[in-house]
Here is the input.
Amino acid sequence: MANDSAEHRLDKALLDLTAAHPGDAVVTLLRVAPSCDRAALTMWKTIMGSLRTAEPVQLILLDVLGSWPEHSMCTSDRDKTGVFGLAATVVMWKILQEAPVPRIVAPHFPHLFVHLLFQVFFSTEEMPEEVDTFWKQCQEEHGLATSPNRVIARCSSSP
Here is the structure.
């Protein structure tokens, strides 16, 4: 019972922080867990499952997806470290694998699909070494397809 209460407080704190500073929350989570490990996926599911945070977070993820090879967004602490567009792709892939797919994805699916198509196009070009290293790490951790194109194709067929 005490763990449930502590978990609920952590979820509430995450949602309050994300609602107040969605850009900081998204970019920070993508930076610290770009391959979307189990703990990060739990946080993403919490964020995407809340009506007050899902919409702004989805829009920020779409913005990151539209940037290749990395997205530059300054957080409130003035950190300008780039975030790989593929990190947002992995997050979306994980979210789309959940049953049921969060309702917030449906209205934005056309934009998501276009961004994923651009990811396919650009990821077939020569990838910078950092992106290639990141992709190999994602493959090992999640058993992803050998190319970003195949993961993106799976994302686009999920909803």
In short: Residues 2-20 form the longest helix (19 residues). The longest strand covers residues 70-71. The helical segments are 2-20, 22-32, 38-48, 51-65, 85-96, 105-123, 129-142, 148-157.
